[in-house]
Specification:
Blueprint: H1 6-34, H2 47-54, H3 58-69, H4 73-81
Helix pairs in contact: 2-3, 3-4
């Protein structure tokens, strides 16, 4: 099994996340054109939480979501994991 350094793994995950965001944007566009409602995974989530997730700070996003909403850790983590 090959060994990957933390920076290599981070870059790989960032690339995957960028592609997923592009795919989700395209899906939303196609759904809109087809007249089929599409709910994005970040609908209703405070923008600053979404930005933390996009920056790769999932722990910070969970913490901030808890501060803003009073959600427990499990619920906040579930929401953040869907983004």
């Amino acid at each position: 099994m090959p060994y990957y350094s933390q920076p290599q793994l981070s870059e790989f995950v960032d690339t995957i996340m960028e592609r997923l965001r592009a795919i989700e944007s395209q899906l939303a566009l196609l759904s809109d054109k087809a007249g089929i409602p599409y709910e994005r995974s970040d609908d209703g989530v405070p923008a600053e939480v979404v930005e933390l997730v996009k920056a790769g700070d999932r722990v910070g996003a969970i913490r901030r979501l808890r501060e803003l909403t009073g959600a427990d850790t499990g619920a906040a983590a579930e929401i953040v994991n869907k983004i």
